[in-house]
TrEMBL record:
This is UPF0225 protein H9638_05420. It comes from Arthrobacter pullicola. HAMAP family: UPF0225. Residues 36-130 form the YchJ-like middle NTF2-like domain. InterPro entries: NTF2-like_dom_sf, YchJ-like, YchJ-like_M. Pfam families: YchJ_M-like. Belongs to the UPF0225 family.
Amino acid sequence: MTFPVLNSSDRCPCLSGETYGGCCHRFHAGSVPAPTAEALMRSRYTAFVTGDSSYLLRTWHPSARPARLDLDPARVWRRLDIMSTQAGGPLDSTGVVTFAAHYREDDAPGVQSERSSFLREAGRWLYVDGE
């Protein structure tokens, strides 16, 4: 099993309603940083979908970043639901995004629910941790 390869015209997995090329790809490519904590959350979800561990590590705050990240292609991410956001806008320095990420693994459905904390440093949003 392998991770899917997205074309720029494919619908973005973060369910923003945009194409991958008009949404998360620009963040993954490093063209521009995510402007909000929610946009970073969505782009990180899409990185899990595509197996882009380097992007996940790049957008993880150094205080909590693991040395490596091994993603399992057997976990197939299906849907992202953003439940709420607190702050995390272009002028904020902190933000919180609560979400539910749905997946299938070994033919069984699953969901990862998390309240994620983000910091904006030097104009870039970074994932800190989740509970």
